[in-house]
Amino acid sequence: LQLRQWSTFGTLEVIPEIESVAPAFSVVTEDDCEILKIPAKEYAKLKLEKKKLESIQKLELIRKCPYYEEWPTLSIYELIALIKWKKFPPGHVIVESGSIISFVAYINSGYCNVYRSIIGFVKLHSNKMKKTRKLVYMGRLKEKESFGEISVLLQEPFTCTIITGREVELAIIEDKDLWVA
C-alpha cells in the first residue's frame, strides 16, 4: 500500500499496553517528507476542549433566546446535551403551515422568513373568480430566536410556514430526544 500526500495512518485512540490482536505495521518513506504526529492523548485533550467550547456556545445561544433567559442553568444544561447542529441553504422550507414540527430550533446564524398561508381570490380573464392559496410575509426570525416549542410539546400543527432567508445554522433538539430525557 502506498501512502500519498494527506494520507493518514495509525490510530487516534489510546490503546492499552497489552498485546494487541491486530498486527503492527511499519511505514517506510522513500523520499523526504513531512509527517505530522498527533499523540492519542493529545488528540483526546483536543476533543475534550472542543466539546467544552461547543457546550459554551450552545449555552450562550439558549441563554440569549428570550424565552430561556430566566431558565435555571441546570435545565439549560439538560437541553445542551440534546442539541445537534444543522445547516440549511437559502430558500429551504423548514416547516410548512399545518404540520407538526419534529424539533425545537434555536437560530445560531442566518435568519428565517415567516409566512402565513391564506386563501384568496384571483380574478380570471373571463371575469370569474378562482380560489388560490398564497403565502403572506409575516415577519422574520433572527439569530438567537427559537421556534417549534409549542408544536413539539403540545403536538399542535404549526400555524406558519418557515423558510430560510439565507444559509441558516440551527441548534436543534428532536422531539424523540425530548421524550427520552
TrEMBL record:
Gene3D superfamilies registered for this protein in UniProt: Jelly Rolls (2.60.120.10)
All copies of domain Cyclic nucleotide-binding, residue ranges: 67-178
InterPro entries in the cross-refs: cNMP-bd_dom (IPR000595), cNMP-bd_dom_sf (IPR018490), RmlC-like_jellyroll (IPR014710)
The organism's place on the tree of life at top rank: Eukaryota
Full protein name: Cyclic nucleotide-binding domain-containing protein 1
Organism listed in the record: Galeopterus variegatus
